[in-house]
Design a protein that fits this description.
disordered N terminus; transmembrane beta strand; 10 helices; 5-stranded mixed beta sheet; Bacterial surface antigen (D15) domain-containing protein; D15-like
Length: 671
Amino acid sequence: MPVWGEDSMPVVHELVRHALPYTTKIEPVDDKAVTDGMAAASQLVSLQATRSVGPYALAGRIRADYERVQGALQSRGYYGGHVRISVEAGGGRTVDGRAPDLAGFLASVQPGEAVTIHLGAVLGEQFTVGRIIIVGEDGDGQGAAGKAADGKQEKADQPSVRQVLSLSEGERSSLGLKEGAPAVAEDVLAIQGRLLTYLQEEGYGLSDVQAPQAILHPERKQIDVQIRMKRGPKLVIGPMTLKGLERVKPDYVRRRMLLREGQLYQPSVLEQARLDLGSTGLFASVIQKNGDKVLPLPSQKPAPGGKKSAGKKMAEQPLPPGVEGALPIDFDFSEGKRHRLTGDVGYSTDLGGRAGVSWLHRNLLGRGEQLRVAAMATGLGGTAQQGLGYDGYVDFMKPDFLQRSQSLDLRIEAIRQLLYSYRQTAFLVQGRVERPLWKDFSGSVGMTLEQEHIRQFGRKAEYFIASVPIKLDYDGTHRSSPIEPATHGFRVSLGVTPSVSLEHKTSFFIPMNMQASTYFDLARLGLTRPGSSVIAMRVMIGSIQGASTWNLPPDQRLYAGGPGSIRGFRYQGVGPQYGTTKYAIGGTSMDAGTVEFRQRLPKNFGLAAFVDAGQVSGKSMPGHGRLRVGCGGGVRYFTPIGPVRVDVAMPINRPNRGDKWELYLGLGETF
């Protein structure tokens, strides 16, 4: 054993502790994926800037990288390739990474001397996939009662014998990999998930697929892939148990559920049912679990041991072919909070400020009914306002009204608006039924009764208006939630509202409107990341048939201006004006369009730039009137409840007594 002297100890200590900075250079190879894989696998790369070590530790890091980087080669099928590492120091001195004196070479590097580590590889020939062998156990595919192929009850300790299984055409296609394909590890490992998913979607709910095992054949530059698989019995959904329901009625959950007993067991269908129940807003969590035991079908005799069979509902309907048993399903619910108190604030220079509060009661009667009570003060300043107003309502919504996915909405509302165009005090009673129609389409029809008092240009009038609003919507943006800004697709809304004014010159009129918007993601051109740069466009058209402007109640006429139509002009500030004042008369036709560019920035910020244009006319056909154009921009801050929006807009051709600019603050994109 060597004996260290006092003079030698500090030298060794210094060699161990003295950090040796270095730079790693990746030598590119023909396969870019391998080059990227080498950089990702190498500790020399990942630790060079954060964890400097001494010469001996660095030598160990270099040698450890051989095995790490070799894995990157093999993951792409280059089993015959090898890794090359060399170390270069000042004066052109180099040494191989496997050299016995590597540590001594690194220890000889003087302070300030540059050290460069070159990391490369020789790929060789890429191996391909040979045979794909699926093996199972003796008795695979046995019945639900747990019997072996000979009909005798299988013992738990009976040794299993592997056998090569023949796959159906669908099972073979689900592998996603064919013989002769490059032996890329990612593709080989994906077989397990693909095959298991296919089996479970075919009803083999208890199937099991093990991770693939590669058998290397260097002589023929191939690997054979062996996978152990067990299908198990083909199953249908058995009795469903609902646990954790306290205030929500079980009959509502079962009627809402997208499952029925006797339906083929499919994980995707079960997950969709779970997500659908969660979307009601009634539950904090919904957990789906499989039952402990497979039940025999109603037509089968009970298995030994007194095992119960599936329920009577299943016996009354035809079952999918080849089914061997029924798997019970358990749902565990955790009900969410029933009450919610929220605030609503906003501001724009034309409509001024608004502030209000709303109270929501979920699950009022035990079947998902919602009661909302809201009160809001409006007209807190603003160039289009003459005083303080209010908006208060009580709203009752019943989901799954008469049939699934059809909702009933009833509302009682009181409104007071002191606009420059008119002053209104109104009381409304509304009812509406809404339901999905086809894919991406929904429709609604309702009834509205409105009693109002309006004063315009010094004249007072009472109106009692009955209307039947009919609406058809198409939304092809496929957003995950309504508050999420759209980045692609189309949205179209069509509305027709036959109406009759029963007081003050009784008249029948039909307001009609259409709004369409589309969104183009510049990522489709390869210019940006998905969702970061979007061009949004909108067009709006409105027309009223059956009555002239002055025969219509002022609040039923068409107006433009403000954040909902043409920014840069105050609310109702576009269209015919009363004499030389800034009071808007309104019209019987309106058209407007918008082009907006939206750019996401880091840290949840974003920018927007837009141009709006439109016109209002006393003629019944759109396309007439004085065209007004506004432009501007704004900032966005994206939150979990939608983007907070701040926009500033200016008119290009300002009307008489029009505002010079407008400021808008709100939640969510304008369209």
